[in-house]
Description:
single chain
Amino acid sequence: MEARAELRQVRISPRKVGVVLDLIRNKPVEVAMAILNNTPKSASEPLAKLLKSAVANAENNHNMDTSRLYVSQAYVGAGVTLKRIRAKDHGRAHRILKRTSNVTLVVKEAE
């Protein structure tokens, strides 16, 4: 049995989120939460909330034992990209891409 939680359109680049997800993949939930609380990255705070949500889904929707949960899958994809313009010299304009991420976190019960 598995429980999942998704985070849509978070305003952090998928590349930055992926670095933090690599730290918590295949770890027990308690260890993953400790890693997220002590990692000085901007993606740590939304991922900690997402992990709490996945644990709550496992406990309330699937009646799983929270002490035996681990992060089985954690992946990120690109969301919509906000396109902005930055004024440059001689009337030119350069495009700025503000990227967003769609994050999925799946927790499973250890056998």
